[in-house]
Amino acid sequence: MTSPSAHQRGRPPTTDHSAIEQAAFRLFGERGFEETTVDAIAEAAGIGRRTLFRYYPSKNDIPWGQFEAGLVRLHAHLAASPPDIPLYEAVHRAILDFNHLDEAAIPQHRQRMRLLLTTPALQAHSALKYAAWRNVIAEYVAGRCGTTADALLPRTIGHVSLALALSAYEQWLEEEDSSLPRLLDSSLSGLRRYLTRP
Predict the structure, then answer these.
(1) Which residues are CB-contacts of 194 (< 8 A; sequence separation ≥ 6)?
(2) pLDDT lower than 50: segments of the chain
């Protein structure tokens, strides 16, 4: 995403998703999600309301960051998976890659996930995001199995994968010193057991 290159009436020379998120998360921490208005976020980010909406369609989308871009990467990772590796392994690797974090991003990601998993006002919106994520998994599984994404096995693997990942995230939020990759790896091993059971 390119940033504005010219100064506009006191606005910062650059605006991007990260700057808006940082301003929003600071306010969410101070005031709470529901009490923070779009106008307050725009003011804190030094931009206008209309500019904010060019980056995020709604306040509910801000905690999700660039989630849609992440789904594109998840799809690409799955599509590039070697066709001869087991199905569970391809899904496992893709989910680990999807959730990879640079060290510097960990504090804000903890705040992001705590907000997403514990804020009642976000649950309906989150359900749409989770459905889109599950569908990427289901479409890949369907392609491997020669069926459709809404068939029982692809649908089930999508739901199971999401549940396993969310369980790892909940544990990660409860244990400040825990490793997210290690928790995800351990939790996702359950998918292997599910797919390889007699």
Answers:
(1) 88, 160
(2) 1-13
